[in-house]
Structure formats: C-alpha cells, structure tokens
Amino acid sequence: MEIKDLAGLSKPLTRLIEVISQGIGAVSRPYLIRRTADAKAHEVRVIAAALKDVANQHQLPVVFKDGEVELWQKPEDRTLLLDTSSCDERTASRTDYRERKRQNNVESITSVAAADLFDQTEVPDQRPDEDWINRFFSAAEDVSSEQMQELWGRILSGEIKKPGSYSLKTLDFVKNLTKEDATTLEKMSKLAVFYQGVAILPNHDAEWLKTERDLFPGHHFAAGELGAMYPTDLNYRVFQDPSVNQAVFVSGNFVLIVDRASITNEIQLPVWKFTRIGQEILQLIPPDGDEAHLAQLGRFFVSRKATAKLAKIIEKLPNGQIRFQDAKDVQLPADKV
Q1: What InterPro entries does the annotation carry (predicted)?
Q2: For range 164-181, the mean pLDDT
C-alpha cells in the first residue's frame, strides 16, 4: 500500500500512516497525536484534513472524530462491577475492556512515533518489512507502561527513518523487557563508548565507576542475563598494529583522540561489550556522552605514555568522519605524574 502526496503531511508522517494502516488496518486521529501537554503542537488541523483526504482518495479505512479524544476507565467498562449478568455478557465485557486497552496502547505508541517524525522531511524509498510490521503491532498492543510506550514509539519511528535498524530479535527482546530492565540499560547506555564501530563500556577503573557513577559489576551481570551485553569481562587490544598511531573513542557528543606517542606495545583495555541487540537498544536511548568518563579513559592511556585530546563533536558526517571543536589535552592529576 502506498499513499502519495498527502496535503500538508511530510513524507515521514505519510510513511507512518502507511505502516499503521498496513499493521492495524485502520488509521485514526489519535494515532498521530501526543496526549501530553508538551506536544500540543502536533494537534494541528492539517493532520485531521489529511486523514480525511486519505479516506476519500485512497479508499483506506480511516476514522476521524472532531473534538476531544475519548478517554475511558475501568468502571465505565463494567469490569469492576459485580452483577448477575450472564457468562456471555461477562465475557463480552472482559473482551471489550481488553481490546479497548490494547487500542489505547497502540494509539499512545504511534503518537510517540508521530511526534518523533514531525520535524523530519525525508524518508528512504525502502519500507519496513511486512513481517516486521506485523510482529511490531502484535507486541505493541500489550505495552501499557508509559516508559515502555516511549521506547516502542522510538522503535517505530527509527524503523521508518532507516528500515532494518531493529531486528525481529530486538523486538522480541524489548517485548520481554521490564521497566526495571530498561532503567538498568539506560544507566549503562550513558557510559557507552564507540570504538571502531563497536559499543563498549570501558571498566578499567571499577572504583571510579562505583563512586562516581554508582555502577557495579552487578549491573553488567544483569545486562548480560538480558542479552544486551556479553556476560564476561573482555580486553580490547589497542595499538596492537604497529602501523596504527591513533585510536578514536566516541561517547555521545564527545570524542577522545588518543595518539600512540611513546607507546611501544599494545595496550589491553578492560571493557564490557554490548551485543548486537544491545547496540540496537543504544539507538533508542542515545547518550549525550559522559565527558568525565571519557576523560578518565584518556588518563588511562596517558598513564601508559600516550597523549590524548578530548573535544566536543559539532557534526557527524555520513562517511563516518566527525567535526569537533574545543579540543583540550587530557592531563594526569599532579600526584600521578
């Protein structure tokens, strides 16, 4: 199914309507509207007009209700009432409640995706895979936690922006994720560092992680049990190749550039390593970068006779290169020189 040139809607939001109608079979106004106060800008007339246009021009089962979004509660669904209704009536009431709850969940998740796509102007020609769409909505309808709905909404918008970003395994992973699990992963993601395209969490100074970031080996163990990190401690061999004179580490908006300088042998850097699923999860909760943690990593190399500079990233180029500013030398504390 393809919808072209919807008046007033950007290509990403148009693509979102296509994905919703393919996965759910209908599109309504609440799918595209955030119900939170900070997103009132998305409640615009053009969305309502465009939805009507979809129905009229493309024969899609689009539903639009002008005015406020209808809200409902358990008592109104008679789920908490004790009466003498028949078994069939009680079954219908329970089924109706469950389906209305699922509908509310899907609308909340897709509205998160719509808000994330609102300022986008382009999407690739490639569309999300049909099996992926079916799997996504099958799982998303049972997600009731607001925190987890935010996560699922970003998965949907991310897949529209770049199809193939999230594997079916990652969908299954997130489906079984609890709020506590998500909190643990968010805590560890803030310290994620990318080196040669691989996400790691340097743990060369366990005491610093414990005292400064309240991060313990137990967090690594929990992430390993989930499948987001490899369960064992690893060592990365930096400057193993004698011809390599520079190592670059990126954490959010910061970059650490380490020059070999006086190093003659490889340096073994203790790390916790994210799995492929873990790296896909990092796309959902991208860290701003922990400057202090990256500086601590720089001091690890400087203490082994390298030189290091820490800088703020101002642009990440499509070819993988980065532009940065305000580079400053990483120095050892006076008592460590």
Answers
A1: DUF2806
A2: 91
Rounded to a whole number, what is the largest CA-CA distance in the chain? Answer: 85
pTM, 2 dp = 0.74
- Provide the residue type at 74 as one letter: K
Strand bridging mode 254-259 / 307-316:
antiparallel
pLDDT of 300: 96
pLDDT of residue 333 exceeding 60:
yes
Which contacts (CB < 8 Å, 24+ apart) does range 287-291 have? 287/189, 287/190, 287/191, 287/192, 287/251, 287/252, 288/190, 288/252, 288/253, 289/251, 289/252, 289/253, 289/254, 290/190, 290/191, 290/213, 290/251, 290/252, 290/254, 291/251, 291/254
Q: How far apart are CA 219 and CA 176, in angstroms?
A: 18
245 pLDDT band, cuts 50/70/90, is very high
pLDDT at 207: 95
- Is 44:87 a contact under the CB 8 Å cutoff? no
Q: In what order do the strands lie in the sheet with 234-238?
A: 234-238, 267-273, 198-202, 193-195, 246-251, 254-259, 307-316, 322-329
